[in-house]
Write a structure and sequence with these properties.
This protein has 13 helices and 21 strands. The chain is of the alpha/beta class. The protein folds into three domains: 159 residues, 3-Layer(aba) Sandwich (Rossmann fold); 240 residues, tm_1862 like domain (pyruvate-formate lyase- activating enzyme, Alpha-Beta Horseshoe); 55 residues, Nucleic acid-binding proteins (OB fold (Dihydrolipoamide Acetyltransferase, E2P)), CATH 2.40.50.140. β20 and β21 form a beta hairpin. The radius of gyration is 23 Å and the shape is globular. The termini are far apart. Bound molecules: 5'-deoxyadenosine (5AD) and iron/sulfur cluster. The site of 5'-deoxyadenosine (5AD) has 12 residues, from β15.
Length: 467
């Protein structure tokens, strides 16, 4: 696989920051409001923090109200049709806000707009949208906004496929305790169902020294949890010339002084290896959690998905990580109803699920994505047939999750208090394995590590008292 990386120079980013300053000066001290709405994964959340960072430099303040916003950015996800339909619904509703406020600027970005048929649809049917830009064009968001503002024309800037990498784009982080840290972007795997390689292009890694600088700043700013993000973190560094690996990176972040935890996602089973498991075992700050997407337990379907492993190899990997980290928390993603998946294929998935006994699972019904190889495969089974499998899988996993949660009762676990339930005021926390814990406590304790004795649980969460 050839790697292509286009590094955006620091001068270019400086130019963008100067444009921000120009826009700010143009507001002449008047306040302006911006709303950024995010769909999809953590990678998108992190991108939105950069968009907000730029907006802040331009002098915008953030709002949640679409009617008072002078600028609205919708950061979209293309991974399943459901998310796309929600975006179109939201965009439709924005005709009203723009009628109320004709000067309002509406921008749409993210993975969805990297697909030609979507951009065409927005061009023709959503005239209220002023700006469209792909994930790879985010670094020049200020210049794009400036063109919209000064020329009052619609701007369409989907990415070119170069696979950019940039340093120095400011962040406005949405949390004070937990931070996303993107270590790479793009994907080289071309699973046949997945749109991501077409929307985020080829894998490119940030340099270790840039990642470590960012991690050190986060720790110095008081962040207690750093999540290293990449579509496939286990191939981190393969496009760099310094021999960096993901396991080494975890060790280096672990060496930063301070009381914080390191989380990471996502690991592809074909690339997760003992070097990673050893780092998880050795690094006291590294979470004991591995998200290892299975997608299917049927060798035939795994082959059609282009996943490069079979059920046996996957199970051997699970045994291996449990050898290194005996109490590792395992979670997974499973797609139900991939084209041609039969009852027998599904039973194979159930077999793996019962064998592994995941702590938690994200389940999806296959969603056809235009332009991917799976979209061309015969898909004879109905939605209703797929739903029966889907419901059975969820039922099984709920039982296993609850059984696994029960094993915590009576135990005392160290957790990071990370927030408060808006409805009942109960504090929320995560164990080192990433399990959700709910406990009564004072809000001022959010951001600290405490010990909680677990006394109750359900499928989703553990409950306990701070000791
Ligand atoms: N349909 C359904 N689920 C999908 N995923 C990715 N592409 C699709 C698709 N076309 C799921 C995979 C992946 C997770 C992020 O989303 O399980 O791991
Ligand atoms: Fe959505 Fe996937 Fe893109 Fe994330 S990488 S924004 S989940 S399509």
């Amino acid at each position: 696989m050839s790697y292509k990386r286009t590094e955006i120079s620091p001068e270019e980013i400086k130019k963008q920051l100067n444009i921000c300053a120009d826009i700010r000066a143009g507001f002449e001290g008047q306040s302006r409001l911006a709303l950024v709405e995010t769909f999809g994964c953590q990678q998108n959340e992190e991108d939105s923090e950069k968009i907000r960072g730029y907006l802040c430099e331009m002098g915008f303040e953030m709002t949640e109200d679409e009617f008072s916003a002078d600028l609205i950015v919708i950061n979209t996800c293309a991974v399943r049709e459901h998310a796309e339909m929600r975006v179109f619904g939201n965009l439709g509703a924005l005709t009203h806000t723009k009628k109320d406020k004709p000067q309002q600027i509406i921008a749409v970005c993210g993975c969805m707009v990297q697909q030609e048929h979507i951009t065409e649809k927005i061009k023709k049917s959503f005239r209220q949208v002023d700006l469209v830009f792909g994930p790879d064009e985010l670094w020049r968001f200020p210049e794009l906004i400036k063109t919209v503002m000064s020329e009052r024309k619609r701007v369409f800037a989907p990415g070119s496929g170069d696979g950019c990498i940039s340093e120095g784009v400011p962040h406005l982080r949405s949390d004070k305790v937990k931070a996303w840290l993107s270590i790479m972007n793009g994907c080289n795997n071309f699973c046949t169902y997945c749109i991501v390689p077409y929307t985020r292009f080829r894998e490119r890694s940030r340099r270790p020294e840039d990642i470590l600088d960012e991690a050190k700043k986060l720790v110095a700013d008081g962040y207690k949890e750093i999540t290293l993000l990449g579509q496939n973190v286990n191939s981190y560094g393969r496009d760099l010339d310094c021999g960096a690996s993901f396991a080494q990176l975890i060790r280096q972040v672990n060496d930063i002084e301070g009381d914080f935890v390191i989380r990471f996602m996502t690991s592809h089973p074909k690339d997760a290896n003992e070097e990673l498991f050893a780092a998880m075992r050795d690094c006291e700050k590294c979470e004991k959690h591995l998200h290892l997407p299975l997608q299917s337990g049927s060798d035939r379907i795994l082959k059609a998905m282009n996943r490069h492993y079979n059920a046996e190899k996957y199970l051997a990997l699970v045994d291996k990580v449990r050898e290194y980290v005996p109490d590792v928390v395992l979670t997974t993603d499973i797609i139900v109803g991939f084209p041609g998946e039969t009852d027998e294929d599904f039973e194979e998935t159930m077999r793996v699920v019962e064998k592994v006994r995941y702590d938690a699972m994200f389940t999806f019904i296959y969603s056809k994505r235009v332009g991917t190889p799976a979209a061309e495969m015969p898909d004879p089974f109905t939605r209703e047939e797929k739903q029966i499998h889907f419901d059975r899988l969820i039922e099984t996993q709920n039982r296993i999750s609850e059984e696994k949660h029960r094993e915590y009762i009576g135990k005392t676990v160290r957790v990071l208090l990370d927030g408060k339930d808006r409805e009942d005021g109960i504090l929320t926390a995560r164990t080192i394995g990433g399990r959700l814990v709910r406990t009564a406590g004072d809000e001022s304790a959010i951001g600290s590590f405490v010990n909680v004795k677990i006394n109750d649980c359900n499928t989703w969460a553990l409950r306990g008292d701070i000791v």
